[in-house]
Amino acid sequence: MRENHGKKGIIYAENLVKALLCAYLVTGMFLLILALLLYKAGLSEENVNLGIILIYVIGTFSGGFVMGKLEGQKKFLWGLGTGVLYFVLLLLISFGMYREVSSGTGDLFLTFVLCIGGGMLGGMVS
């Protein structure tokens, strides 16, 4: 019985890595598009911030969607978990680059809510 549970854990971890990889690939692709728009169209800071928020939601949605498809049950929970891990990795990467959390607590909480909401929505839609 334990061997079967161990294999399930490995499969869950593999699926989670696939979903997070998808989420970060989508995020990277859209960030490149946003950078191109910033360069060509000279977007304002408000538009760039709105774009980044939208990109977080789209990225976590895609990760939650993939995770929901791979797991097949309790999809919204798997999507929520994907959103949480996406946010944690985003926070760790940001902290690793800047050695501090650059945004305020309110912005950080909003980003967290958007990440878990996007992941959960992606899992539910899958």
Helix/strand layout:
Layout lengths: L1 H40 L3 H27 L3 H24 L6 H21 L1
Helix pairs in contact: 1-2, 2-3, 2-4, 3-4
Structure overview:
Keywords: Membrane, Transmembrane, Transmembrane helix. This is TIGR04086 family membrane protein. The protein is an all-alpha fold and 126 residues long. It has one domain. The protein contains four helices and no strands. It has helices at 2-41, 45-71, 75-98, 105-125. It starts with a helix and ends with a helix.
Question: What is the residue-mean pLDDT, rounded to a whole number?
Answer: 89
Domains, number: 1
The counted number of beta strands is 0
The ordered H/E elements are HHHH
Helix content bin: over 70%
- Could you tell me how far the N terminus lies from the C terminus, measured between alpha carbons in angstroms? 30 Å
How big is the Rg? 16 Å
Largest sheet: none
Shape: globular
The helix count comes to: 4
- Share of β-strand residues: under 5%
Task: Give the uncertain stretches in residue-range form.
Answer: none
Question: What structural category arises from helix and sheet content?
Answer: mainly alpha
